[in-house]
Amino acid sequence: MKTAISERLQLLREQLKREHLAAFIFPSTDPHQSEIVPYHWASREWITGFDGSAGTAVVTMNSAALWTDSRYFLAAAEQLSGTEFQLMKMGLPETPSITEWLAHELHELDGPEIGIDGMVESSVEAETLIAEMREHGGITVRTNFDPLQQIWNDRPEIPLNPIMLHPLKYAGEDTISKLRRIRQALREKHADGILVCALDDIAWTLNLRGSDIPCNPLFVSYLLISSTTATLFVDSRKLSPEVEAYLQTAHIDVAPYEKVKEGLAHYFEYNILIDPSEVNYTLSKAIKCQAVVRETSPIPALKAIKNSTEIAGFRQAMKRDGIAMVKFLRWLRPAVEAGGQTEITVSDRLEQFRAEQALYKGVSFPTISAYEAHGAIVHYEPTTATDIPLKPCGFILIDSGAQYLDGTTDITRTIPLGPITDEQRHIYTLVLKAHIQLELCKFPDGTSGTRIDAVARQPLWREGLNFMHGTGHGVGSYLCVHEGPHQVRQEYKPAPLHAGMTITDEPGIYLAGKFGVRIENTLIVEDYQTTAMGHFLQMDSLTLCPIDLSAADLSLLTPEERSWLNSYHQYVYDELAPELNTDERAWLREATKAVK
């Protein structure tokens, strides 16, 4: 692989020389700013060999570097080893920004020009880059060039997987109603229409699902909504007669995917809303109407509040997922003690248990099955090269989830496979306390996730511990496992929390070279009470799975934390026990027994 990367860099530099470009930037995105992209757009991965979901690669004629965040520091260092790429650790004070690094690398050149593909760079990112490069010695940016069209010989085609209807019994609201609410939200922003690029927003609006994106039931397309019309830009080969008839009934026109620029050129309204963080730079420049409203798309906020049908679906999906988790956890330790198990084999076994459940459609993200030191790599995914055998001692961290027709799941459990160290027990207990504190939180309606993030971190901060990823994210309804706009994290995220939103609770601590601990449930935001001081919210667990207490120092838990554990475990038992056989029920009774 290292040789292949070197050869690809050589081919790229030959292209840059022919185009008179001094550098090229490869983000991790596609034309829809997807978190996970179809491999046709996996340009950054192809040029670097680094397969994490986040990162930006920059290549000059004489140097190369990759920027990524703390989730991938260890994984990126390993995958980039032996290549020309220098790892740039984002968030550290000594790490230069991409523009600072480029200015330094190109400072001896006279009027250099760098390149980006404007079809995969968001409007806001491209505009920021252009402005900053101008400030750094007048470096210009070309946006209409994709060098990999010439040098990626076996580049996969854009997927042509069929699009499927998402029935009303799972969606809970028809497309005509959703379009009506979207148009009302647009009027409130003084916009006549919107170009929708985010694939999960399109799937939600149209009550359609696909399989173009790994782990996410999405399909490659654009949606142009005006005050009276809506056009889906999609390859027609993906549409069955049933889906075509459905779109006609919903008054949705269909045009070829590659004709979206022409659609924008013929857009007839006075103005259009584009979300600069979602619409790519090239399409933002193709708009010809009188005015552009640069605003946040209203669709994510609408999508984030689940209706009663979706919430009921989540609860049913979580019950089936909980059954699979109980079967797996009951199997795990005896299997490890018997020998022959590895990170990959137990991950595969968990997927098998889930696949036995009704309405299962696949995993919602690649399973993180991380034993001991691998658990400290936040987004570690075992491969044949990194897979290691499991021993009946220490921790395995398993972060996993599934897609069901009626909901999406996301759960993390850190499981002791045998004896653990005092340090492991102490860290596990602190993470458990952090998890429970967020579950217990009560807060005013409209509070942002940033304001409650500290609630979860307090037990860790008191001992000088912290984690650098977010504490929680929204979860889609048979959509993306990471869904916004709301989050719970240290960095300021103003999106308010309201009843009906899903949010994960996943604090963790990671000690490099030793182990990692993370405990995660998916929660639903609910009404709590209304007082003279306003309306307050709380969160309730959707996830149904015991939390292993054999690894915890129960003396460190407060009475309130113990009470929450007992209540949660009783709830888990009551919901799952009727669906289990006698032996499984006995195991679950022991796993959920009350803490005194």
Task: Describe this protein with a few key phrases.
Creatine Amidinohydrolase, Chain A, domain 1, six-stranded mixed β-sheet, 28 strands, four-stranded mixed β-sheet, 19 helices, Creatine Amidinohydrolase
Describe the structure.
Helix 14 packs across helix 15 and helix 16 runs antiparallel to helix 17. The chain starts with a helix and ends in a 5-residue tail after the last helix. The longest helix has 31 residues. A six-stranded mixed beta sheet has the order 4-3-2-1-5-6, sandwiched between helices. Strands 8-10-11-12 form a four-stranded mixed beta sheet. The chain has three domains: 150 residues, Creatine Amidinohydrolase, Chain A, domain 1 (3-Layer(aba) Sandwich); 136 residues, Creatinase/prolidase N-terminal domain (Creatine Amidinohydrolase, Chain A, domain 1), CATH 3.40.350.10; 284 residues, Creatine Amidinohydrolase (Alpha-Beta Complex), CATH 3.90.230.10. The protein is built from 19 helices and 28 strands. It is of the alpha+beta class and 596 residues long. Helices cover 36% and strands 20% of the residues. A hairpin with a 4-residue loop joins strand 10 and strand 11.
Summarize this structure briefly:
The protein is an alpha+beta fold and 596 residues long.
